[in-house]
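Might I ask for a little of your time on a matter of protein folding? Here, with my thanks, is the record as I have it:
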Amino acid sequence: MHDDIAGTDVLIIGAGLAGMTAALSLPPQLRITLLSKGRAEECASAWAQGGIAAVLDADDSLEAHVQDTLTAGAGLCDEAAVRRILAQGPAAIAWLQEHEIAFTTQANGSLHLTREGGHSARRIAHAADRTGLAVHQALLRACRRRANISLLEHCRALELLQDEGRQCVGAVVQAADGSRRPLYAGHTILATGGMGRIYPFTTNPAGATGDGQTMAWRAGCALRDLEFMQFHPTALQVDG
């Protein structure tokens, strides 16, 4: 792991599961800088409990998973996107297993699958009841083993850098000591998670402040579907 922030091939802003998956999926010859504005362990990904849905049982089918998802989406889903994402489910689970995620298994060694709300079949692969934490810890270990991945903690992206053609060429970052500097990159990936902390009552972690969405909007990107906000873990705020 290197820690030079003068320049990088790929800058990934956000060190949750999305950011780390991107880092580990890129060619190892690329210099990758992974930014976390706090400790890498402090993200929403590690809070997820239940598990990951994928068609892994012979009695299940992709079509059944698609229909369950469309029904749960109450007409709001993009069916093409649903089919594309769900079709990759089994391969995604296999990739996670290759990265040493300790999924709960049965006596014969096969994955223990559970059934959760909205699903018509047992298709939830899980690591006991702390799946997000197990996956996050395993991928974090994998990132720290990769010599081409620089994990910069307590380093916050403030603004996307653009050239004269408005092409993104990196970001302005702020280190733990408050100093700011440009971090130039050939490619930049936003993986900053949600923005639940903009609400007065939320169960989202402190870092979920919409940094990525804000920087993208300031750089001229269009934002959509902002009304779809998840509060996890689920809770009810009441007076008193």
In short: Residues 50-129 form one domain. The helical segments are 17-25, 62-72, 79-87, 89-98, 131-145, 211-218. Strands lie at 7-13, 32-35, 52-53, 113-114, 124-125, 149-152, 156-162, 168-174, 180-190.
